Amino acid sequence: MTMMNDANALEALLADLPAQDVQEVAPPPAAPTRDLPKLMRKIPVTLTLEVGEARVSLQDLLAIGADSVIELNTLAGEPLTLKANGTTIGRAEVVVSGENYGLKVIEIAGLDLDSLAP
């Protein structure tokens, strides 16, 4: 019976409270839609030109010195691998640009950021 008395007492207290104007709260504005491909175009990436690679034994590695020559798996004059953040995206060759080395793109994979749109 005490639970019933407590419930009745609570209802009586609530009934005694003055009625307040209840205002509807508008839902928060929707987040602006973002153009993912446009945003991704602004992300910086690191381009690297990979000359080649060589597989050597640990014994051969220990024998490498300042005048050592290590043959790579790339033929001289062959286009080199162009990478963006470590992912192969094409082929290029080394050129001189002012006082720096540069790269001349020979072929490039189809990079289509627009295809990433939801």
TrEMBL record:
<keyword id="KW-1003">Cell membrane</keyword>
<dbReference type="Pfam" id="PF01052">
    <property type="entry name" value="FliMN_C"/>
</dbReference>
<dbReference type="InterPro" id="IPR001543">
    <property type="entry name" value="FliN-like_C"/>
</dbReference>
<keyword id="KW-0472">Membrane</keyword>
<dbReference type="InterPro" id="IPR036429">
    <property type="entry name" value="SpoA-like_sf"/>
</dbReference>
<dbReference type="InterPro" id="IPR051469">
    <property type="entry name" value="FliN/MopA/SpaO"/>
</dbReference>
<dbReference type="InterPro" id="IPR001172">
    <property type="entry name" value="FliN_T3SS_HrcQb"/>
</dbReference>
<keyword id="KW-0282">Flagellum</keyword>
<keyword id="KW-0969">Cilium</keyword>
<keyword id="KW-0145">Chemotaxis</keyword>
<feature type="domain" description="Flagellar motor switch protein FliN-like C-terminal">
    <location>
        <begin position="40"/>
        <end position="108"/>
    </location>
</feature>
<protein>
    <recommendedName>
        <fullName>Flagellar motor switch protein FliN</fullName>
    </recommendedName>
</protein>
<keyword id="KW-0283">Flagellar rotation</keyword>
<keyword id="KW-0966">Cell projection</keyword>
<comment type="similarity">
    <text>Belongs to the FliN/MopA/SpaO family.</text>
</comment>
